[in-house]
Write a structure and sequence with these properties.
The chain is an alpha+beta fold. The chain has 34 helices and 34 strands. The N terminus and C terminus are likely disordered.
């Protein structure tokens, strides 16, 4: 590694100093004192030479080598003395009056004599020093040679750097491993870019701790070669880091071997896990050494537990004797196969074929056996079934309802079953040997023969032919039968067509039925109008024409206004008759190209092709007037019928059928909300329709949330203001969006109420709350007198199935009815008073409690209260929130509280948000309080309950007790 830093430190740092006799080194010319002495001697000598007649320049040039040589050989003192002697001699000659030439003649020999004398002494002393110096140089050279021999012959790379990691020394092995021609820069620059950041961070961390650095890394050579190396280095220096020494070992081959081993192990595992069956290895100790992943399903244990375990732990003792005998044979060097029945973890009996292959080592000894097991159950059952099917084939052909005819390669009939004889009118005896075209004659409904007989086409092309649709079979007597017809070639093992099998059946009756079913599938059975499915099909065609050709169409959505009254008053028979008569009234106003359909219930749709919005609105007004003038009579009763109409355009901006129907439904609803019996024309940006769209979108999201189980229960404590009472908890329904975030209740509850989803949501809440309450009760985490409050919508009060559902859930969860309190809003009760009374009475009979929610918000609260047997009154939060500063609200809360107590009903104040409100409620004697000041709603503790409902209900209770104690102390 000639170009890497030298291995000789003396060469790296400049010429070596010669050793002195006293053990020190001879001063170098770079010594400032030597230079000053030499310059002084040079000046004096040049003066003497000048007096001898030499010029200034010549004097300096002649004197300088002498002085320099003296100083170089004997040191600066001898050089100074020589110069001084020459100067003194020249001065003495001048005082004696000698001429300049004489001065020079005298001075120069004297100087020369002094120089020689001094040089002789210096040589003797220098000779001794040179001998010592030469000995030391030889020793140093021998040490360097040994060091270089060691470093240059070792395969381990050795390097030394300064504190900045720049190279001071590196041997050839390091250069070969690192791929570096020079270490003038940071050696980490030779590291592969993908490893460089990791190596640099590790180096710095080791340097900060003054700890050894060890790492495996890749070196990237300039020619692209990658070398894996293991590097170890350590900092040196007293007090501070002066540099680093380290070693590098090439581990590329080891790394490649390890990587190859890992790849081989991974491939082995992939092969094992993808073997179509079970694969394992059993050693001579009868232990599984490795098994395929399929064993997990087979034995019901993870692979990690199976491997290393004795095989006897996993096999039925009844089959172990045969299995062990096969294993012993494999260990003896025999290849064995065995069939056995094995019961799987799921209890299914399977028949498997196991092949045992001995594993020989390099010396020919068996170390173990490979086991390959394949489930043969399906194959064996299939073979057995095929044999049975072959036995039944002859009987089947004689008894099936399909006609079967086989022909030879020339297209002549060679077999007919009885059905084909009946269907074609040809007897087998008469038909055998005849061309199939004469016996099986296919034509169209008019009786015209097909141009190409399907059987002949199959024999020619060697491909199956299926003929369905409006095809008929011409019988021998000339009668026509509708048939479905198929032909398949019969091929030899070499692929040559040897004949064909013809299968056909009489579908005359089914084709008539299909035509009838097609009509029924497209029309409403009651009115005979197109049904919703057919209407949407026509609507789809209209949308395509609008987008493709710019055509303009319109749709009218019609909702009868008085249908429910007729249906409820006179019964469903009257409602059906009304729908038929209304269909006739509306159909009288349609054009031949229009499509009138019953979309469901009392809703109709009309598609007006090639119609502007103005014409559509005009037609809708005429239809509305016709309905308004129409009177429906039934059993002496007469009803005025009206309708709400929504008109929407169908143009190139329409994206889908759903968009049209949503817009039409929203426009119709806007007409209904505007007073009924009117026409509402859709306009872009219509706020009412946009609100309707938004609600309809939320309906879809609520349905998806129910299907995907994205509803959760939260709980909010209802804290007793009397230490004698137990705190309750109210269950609150929350919906999570697709991204997992909670959706505000008021964003989706109005849509759910408007579109009838609340009963389904109420049942979900009841089921989840009862299960949670049952879990808490079983674990002893529910106080005996604590109550779980559940909100019920007004729609659930009229749902006859809700009572049965509550009874079923109570029985299923085992909770006591006294633990449950249903909260019903005042407005829902007023709207369904009779049903509410029946519902409350039925459940209170078994112990369920009831609370009248939002009491005081309605106009008739006090009047209805006497008719409702409830246990709790929840005072509307609009009164409670400002009770501390509004005397009217204070009086209302006081009156409701007193009234409830007079009637034996406990009171609950909602929206308790401040300490002042809490103190006032305490003064008034309100029984319970609920609000964010006491505790905010939060998720229920998941199963299994850990401090469960007590943590949710009693934690806020204790906090509230602390606040109540403070409030009592202040009063």
């Amino acid at each position: 590694m000639a170009s890497v830093i030298s291995a000789n430190p003396a060469e790296a740092n400049g010429p070596a100093q010669a050793p002195r006799a006293g053990g020190g080194a001879r001063p170098r010319l770079a010594n400032p004192i030597t230079w000053l002495a030499g310059l002084a001697a040079l000046a004096l000598a040049s003066e003497a030479l000048a007096r001898a007649g030499f010029g200034v320049a010549e004097s300096w040039w002649l004197a300088a080598p002498l002085v320099w040589a003296q100083a170089r050989l004997n040191g600066w003192r001898w050089g100074l003395a020589t110069g001084a002697l020459a100067a003194a001699w020249a001065g003495a000659a001048a005082l004696a009056g000698l001429p300049v030439g004489a001065e020079a003649g005298i001075a120069f020999p004297a100087v020369l004599a002094a120089f020689v004398a001094a040089g002789e002494g210096g040589r003797r002393a220098g000779a001794a020093r040179d001998a010592e110096h030469e000995r030391l140089r030889e020793e140093l050279a021998k040490g360097e040679a040994r060091f270089r021999a060691i470093t240059e012959t070792t395969p381990i790379g050795i390097f030394a750097t300064d504190a900045s990691r720049r190279g001071v020394f590196a041997n050839a092995a390091f250069a070969a491993i690192a791929g570096a021609d020079s270490l003038a820069a940071d050696w980490v620059d030779c590291v592969h870019p993908e490893d460089r950041e990791r190596v640099d961070a590790g180096w710095k961390a080791a340097a900060d701790l003054r700890a050894p650095f060890r790492a495996e890394m890749r070196f990237l050579h300039p020619n692209g070669q990658v070398v894996w190396a293991r590097v170890a280095a350590h900092a040196f220096g007293a007090g501070r880091v002066e540099g680093y020494t380290g070693a590098v070992e090439d581990v590329t081959e080891q790394h490649l071997v390890d990587e190859a081993f890992r790849i081989q192990a991974r491939r082995k595992r992939v092969m094992l896990d993808n073997f179509p069956g079970l694969c394992a290895y059993v050693d001579r100790d009868l232990r599984y050494r490795f098994v395929s992943r399929e064993y997990e399903q087979w034995l019901g244990r993870p692979v990690a537990e199976i491997e290393g375990s004795p095989i006897v732990e996993f096999h039925d003792p009844a089959v172990m004797d045969e299995f062990l005998a096969s294993l012993r044979a494999a260990f003896a060097g025999e290849r064995r196969s065995m069939m056995r029945e094995v019961r799987t973890r799921g209890g299914r009996m399977v028949r498997e074929r196991t092949t045992l292959v001995p594993d020989f080592d390099a010396d020919g000894l068996v170390e173990g056996a490979f086991l390959f097991s394949v489930d043969m159950t399906d194959r064996l059952e299939a073979e057995e079934g095929l044999a049975r099917e072959k036995e039944r084939l002859a009987v089947t052909l004689q008894s099936i309802a399909d006609a079967v005819v086989t022909v030879d390669a020339a297209g002549r009939v060679d077999y007919m079953n009885p059905v084909s004889e009946t269907l074609t009118g040809w007897g087998a005896d008469a038909a055998l040997g005849r061309p199939v075209r004469e016996v099986v004659l296919i034509g169209d409904e008019s009786g015209a023969e097909a141009v190409t007989n399907p059987v002949e086409a199959c024999l020619r092309d060697g491909q199956p032919v299926s003929v369905a649709g409006e095809n008929v079979l011409c019988r021998r007597d000339g009668d026509l039968r509708a048939v479905d017809f198929s032909v398949a070639p019969i091929s030899s093992p070499e692929g040559a067509v040897e004949g064909a099998v013809v299968v056909f059946r009489d579908v005359s009756a089914s084709r008539r039925l299909a035509q009838q079913l097609t009509w029924q599938a497209q029309h409403d059975a009651l009115t005979g109008l197109a049904n919703r499915r057919q209407f949407e099909h026509c609507l789809d065609i209209a949308i395509d024409s609008a987008r493709a050709r710019g055509e303009r169409h319109a749709m009218i959505y019609i909702d009868l206004d008085q249908f429910k009254i007729v249906n409820d008053t006179c019964g469903h028979a009257a409602g059906d008759r009304l729908l038929k008569e209304v269909s006739a009234v509306l159909g009288a106003k349609t054009r031949a190209t229009d499509v009138l359909a019953r979309l469901g219930g009392d809703e109709f749709g009309m598609l007006l092709r090639q119609c502007s919005m103005d014409k559509a609105q005009e037609l809708a007004e005429r239809m509305r007037g016709k309905l308004e003038a129409y009177r429906f009579s039934y059993e002496g009763k007469t009803f005025a019928i009206g309708g709400s109409f929504g008109v929407v355009p169908i143009d190139e901006s329409v994206a889908s059928i759903a968009d049209v129907l949503r817009a039409a439904d929203a426009a119709c609803y806007a007409a209904k909300e505007s007073g009924r019996n009117r026409v509402h024309r859709y306009q872009p940006g219509d706020r009412e329709i946009e609100r309707r769209h938004n609600e309809m979108e939320w309906v879809g999201r609520v349905r998806r949330a129910l299907e995907e189980n994205r509803f959760v229960l939260h709980g909010q404590p209802i804290v007793s203001l009397s230490h004698a009472g137990a705190s309750h908890i109210e269950m609150l329904l929350r919906m999570t969006a697709e991204d997992g975030e909670l959706v505000p209740p008021m964003a989706w509850i109005p849509a759910a109420e408007r579109y009838g989803l609340m009963p389904r949501l109420d049942r979900w809440v009841i089921g989840e709350a009862f299960r949670y309450l049952g879990q808490c009760t079983q674990l002893g985490l529910w106080q005996d007198d604590a109550v779980c409050a559940i909100n019920l919508s007004g729609a659930s009060l009229t749902d006859t199935r809700i009572l049965d559902f509550v009874h079923q859930e109570l029985a299923a969860t085992g909770i006591r009815a006294q633990q449950v309190c249903f909260e019903i809003t005042e407005t829902a009760v007023i709207a369904n008073l009779a049903q509410a009374r029946k519902f409350i009475a039925e459940l209170r009979r078994i112990g369920v409690r009831f609370a009248l929610d939002d009491f005081g918000a309605g106009m008739s609260s006090f009047g209805y209260l006497k008719a409702l047997p409830v246990d709790y009154l929840k005072i509307d939060g609009s009164f409670v929130r400002r009770i501390a500063e509004d005397p009217v609200d204070h009086a209302m809360v006081e009156a409701i509280n007193k009234l409830g107590h007079v009637m034996g009903i406990r009171t609950i104040a909602e929206f308790v948000e401040t300490e002042a409100v809490l103190n006032r409620l305490k003064q008034l004697g309100v029984d319970y309080a609920q609000g964010h000041f006491l505790a905010k709603p939060g998720p229920l503790t998941p199963y299994p309950v850990s401090a469960g409902l007590l943590a949710a209900a009693q934690g806020p209770r204790r906090e509230a007790d602390n606040r109540l104690s403070a409030a009592q102390a202040s009063h």
